[in-house]
Specification:
alpha/beta, Rossmann fold, five-stranded parallel beta sheet, 14 helices, 45% helix
Length: 328
């Protein structure tokens, strides 16, 4: 009787807390992470920390019932195919990738292992999924529509610096998402009456040359979209923009924390945390092609008032009031 009662209680505990039951399983799932910024970077550690926290909330603990296999291109996108192939050879159960070029490398390496994308701009336009509602194939995750983001970024930048008429756009030609960024920025700049100056960079020296060109050609503002290479060099980019006295809008809050003027972007922390939900559902048997792509529910408009003051910008109180966060 006591044994039957114990089994009954144990069964009810499992049914009452399936996440805890999963955490107690001996089977370890292997999750591949294909990133661009190494974990030694504080910003990268913060984002992947949010992903791990999301997993822990669902009962998955690294080293206990999951093994996380981190790989980073460190901004050298040509490394991605080999790193994706390495994760496939390790027979990971899921690959998590945070950028269009990373998802593309993973997708080219495997058509069977599920891929969870994180905060990828326009996955339909980049041909990563068939549609947001019905992704098909082995890719799903969370995304944002690059066209609406860039339009809003430029609209806010114009309000921050009303006299800006010549916009510099820093792009990485190795990032497939930046082709769409150029199209969207061209249309948005035209609607705002701004001339567009496009500059490309594949490394730090290119970035420094690009800012030199901006100064010589009298750019009056700059947009730096999300890119792994740019994030690695964000401190230098913020410094170069300050030296050139260029009001800058960035695609990631890390720049503003480092002294940059402003950012408007989906909450990256929330996107990385939410990616854990996709991993959970896939490990429990869901097919990625059947899981709709999630669009962000939270966007962050952050202003650094110290940077604005150093640039001589007088910001309307109404604009400051619209910010989700103001750094003094």
């Amino acid at each position: 009787m006591r044994r039957r009662r114990f089994l009954a209680l144990a069964g009810s505990a499992v049914l009452g807390n399936p996440h805890r039951a999963l955490a107690q399983q001996a089977t370890k799932f292997r999750i591949g992470v294909l990133g661009n910024v190494p974990l030694s970077d504080p910003g990268s550690a913060r984002l992947w920390g949010a992903f791990e926290q999301g997993l822990r909330d669902l009962g998955y603990v690294n080293g206990r019932n999951i093994i996380l296999e981190h790989r980073s291109s460190e901004g050298h996108y040509e490394r991605l195919p080999a790193q994706a192939a390495e994760l496939v050879r390790l027979k990971v159960d899921v690959i998590v990738a945070p950028a269009a070029q990373n998802v593309l490398a993973a997708k080219q390496a495997t058509q069977t292992i599920p891929i969870v994308m994180v905060s990828v701009g326009d996955p339909v336009g980049n041909k990563l999924v068939a549609s947001l509602a019905h992704p098909g194939g082995n890719v799903t995750g969370n995304s944002f529509l690059a066209s609406s983001i860039i339009g809003k970024q430029l609209e806010l930048l114009k309000q921050l610096a009303p006299s800006a008429t010549r916009l510099a756009l820093l792009l990485n030609p190795d990032n497939p998402g930046h082709r769409l960024a150029l199209e969207n920025a061209t249309a948005a700049a035209r609607s705002l009456g701004m001339q567009l100056q496009t500059l490309e960079a594949r490394g730090l020296q290119d970035i420094e040359r690009a800012f030199g060109t901006m100064s010589r050609e009298r750019a009056s503002a700059v947009l730096v979209p999300w890119d792994g290479l740019f994030l690695i060099h964000l401190l230098r980019i913020v410094q170069l923009a300050a030296n050139a006295r260029l009001p800058a809008m960035y695609g990631h809050r890390g720049y503003v924390d480092a002294g940059g003027l402003a950012t408007y972007s989906p909450s990256a922390v929330q996107s990385f945390r939410n990616a854990a939900t996709y991993v959970d559902r896939i490990l429990k048997g869901a097919k990625p092609g059947d899981l709709p792509v999630e669009q962000p529910s939270k966007f962050e408009f952050i202003i650094n008032l110290r940077a604005a003051k150093s640039l001589g910008l007088v910001l309307p109180p109404s604009l400051v009031g619209r910010a989700d966060e103001v750094i003094q």
